[in-house]
Amino acid sequence: MMQKRSGALQKSLSLILAALMLLLSACEGIPITGQGDQATIRVGSKDFTEQFLIGEMYALVLENAGFKVERKLNLGGTPVAQQALLSNEIDLYPEYTGTGLLTVLKQPVSSDREEVFNTVHDMYLEQFNLVWLEPSPMNNTQALAMTREGAAKYGIKTISDMVAVADQLVMAGPPEFQEREDGLPGLKAAYGDFNLREYRAVDPGLRYQALTEGESDVVVAFGTDGEIAAFDLVLLEDDKGLFPPYQVAPVVRQDVLEANPEIETALNTLAPVLTDEVMRELNYEVSGNQREPADVAREFLTEQGLIE
Known about the structure:
The chain is an alpha/beta fold. It is 47% helix and 14% strand.
């Protein structure tokens, strides 16, 4: 009789243990979050100056709101950051609307800010269970820039003006600009076929050096590059509206946002202050003045009264 009871007890314990194992397995991958200061939010970023700054600002604002934050900055390019969200390695990171539209969703180019944001917002939610929060007014779109002297020499104010004398000009920019649909192929589709004197593919960090040292006449720029203001460069008007908007916004895992709705409130307070002028200045503090992104971010947020 005792042996039967013992066997039955062991069987019951085994069933309970098996049930617990199934429960733990089912819970695996679900973020451990809570409310306020009990939640840990994993903030990521891509691998360049502006992303370091904005990722750090997201982290600081969330900490100020009572969240614990684990920083996973400098992940890599867009595919790496996007996959980190999908595989539950991070909870949010700053992304650009144009990048979401073209690189992630593979949608046609559009220059309409509202249309682009609505497209990425709806399709990310439907396809990935990811939520776009409020975008900032800043627009880190691709652009073409020249020195004031160079623009005056050739009488260039718009991209159409540049195309008219393209065979006299050397353009410097990243290698991928030669292939992107909003790069040289897109320019030729929108502005008519043209041939540069030379396209000089350079490391992104050497673009402005090539321009200021006279090795190129035009540089592939981004709207919030700090060097634009620092070197008093001229941004050529995109008079045919080729380049899509690249507004930055937090992209957040839907399950994390539902568990911690205060994330949206905290990050939306930051969004309006990130303008083109602000980001150019902050970017140059890092890229030009060699300051640490974390120091620049904290100083700026403190001055704005967004953190204590």
